Structures are given as structure tokens and as C-alpha cells.
Amino acid sequence: MKFVLFDLLSALIDSWSLWDEIAGDRDRGRAWRMDYLARTYAAGAYVPYLELVAESAHATGLPRTLADALDARWDELRPWPDAGRALRELSRTATLGVATNCSDALGRRATALVGAPISAVVTAESAGCYKPCRRVYLQGAEALGARPEEVLFVAGSPFDVRGAADAGMTVVWHNRTGLVAAGAEARAAGVLRELTELAQVVD
């Protein structure tokens, strides 16, 4: 594949750890994050990202102000340890992009942290809807200068597997956190535990 599109905040970046830290511990962080994920995937049309984050905090018994804390600490996000190296190697033969469920400003800030040449950044805000809306993936392909069937999508969640596949892309799932979703595993062309495994898929 000469075009590779990534989910950003789970497939390339360990955003889970920062949410856990801000929430105070892993259990509260995961509950907050999972509620947020459910809200974004159900939202359809774009509403401000930090509003959803605040609503999820409130729904799980946390202060709404945690959304402001996440915004303030956004640049503390860290890529998965092998992300920069894997993507720099991949960029020698493929054009890379990201499609992410956040605002334009936060999407670009997070992309800059990956440490690799990424040519296209499509966000829920720029697409006008949240993944798994097909428009996000299709705009990602367009931004890469490719047709959907020419794109390999690296998903970060089971919802991404379904959304990108429905958009006509070949999908692999980088399931770094060990989520259980048999349906997504069955639909993905492969499941990766590390991003260094991508080289075998692309070849």
C-alpha cells in the first residue's frame, strides 16, 4: 500500500495514560474515556470535542473541569514507543495521514508529537462529523490523493475497524491496549500488537 491513514489518539498515541493521570487513577480514567468514546461514536454531526469530554467526565462522577485540564496538558501526550520509528521507516515508501476524532487545533498538536512525516490531518471538526462516519475516512483518502480502496487504515478501536472498512479501505487494528472485540478482529485484515509489525502488512 502506498497510502496509509492512521487513527491518531489510540493507534499512534497512548492517550489512555494521560486521561488516567488527570482522572486520578486508572479505573476512573478508563471509565471516563470509555464513556467519551461511546459519546463520540454516537454523536454523528460534530459538536465541540471538549464539550463531549466534559459531559463524559460529569457522567462518570468526575468534575467537568477535567476537560480543561486535558486541554491544558494536551502536549503531554506521548506516542507509543515504536510509533516514530515505524512511521519514519514507512514514509520512505508510503504517504501517511491521520483521521482523528477531535478538534482541528488539538489534532494538529497531537500529530506534531508523533515525530514522523505526516502529510494529511483530517479531524472530526474538519469533516463535520465523528468517526465512524464514513465522511471522515473518505476525506482522509482524498487528503492523501488516493481512492479509498488504495488506502490502508490503521485503526485504534473496534469502531474504527468497522468505519474504515465500510468506507472501502483495507483495515488493520493496532490493538495496543488489548481490547476484546471478536467482530472487529474478524473484519480486520490483521491485528497488530506493535506498530513495527506494519512493515510486514504494507509489503
How does the SSE layout of this entry go?
Layout: E1 3-6, H1 15-23, H2 26-43, H3 49-59, H4 66-72, H5 83-90, E2 95-100, H6 104-112, E3 120-123, H7 124-127, H8 134-144, E4 151-155, H9 158-166, E5 170-174, H10 182-187, E6 190-192, H11 198-202
Helix pairs in contact: 1-2, 2-3, 3-4
Output the keywords.
203 residues; Rossmann fold; 2 domains; six-stranded parallel beta sheet; 11 helices; 48% helix; 13% strand
Instruction: Provide the spatial order of strands within the biggest beta sheet.
Output: 3-2-1-4-5-6
Q: Which regions are unreliable across 5 or more consecutive residues at pLDDT < 50?
A: none
Please tell me the total number of domains. Answer: 2
End-to-end separation in angstroms reads 7 Å
Name the shape in a single word: globular
The overall pLDDT, averaged over residues, is 94
Say how many strands there are.
6
CATH topology of the largest domain: Rossmann fold
Name given to the CATH architecture of the largest domain? 3-Layer(aba) Sandwich
**Structural class of the secondary elements?**
alpha/beta
Task: Tell me the name of the CATH homologous superfamily of the largest domain.
Answer: HAD superfamily/HAD-like
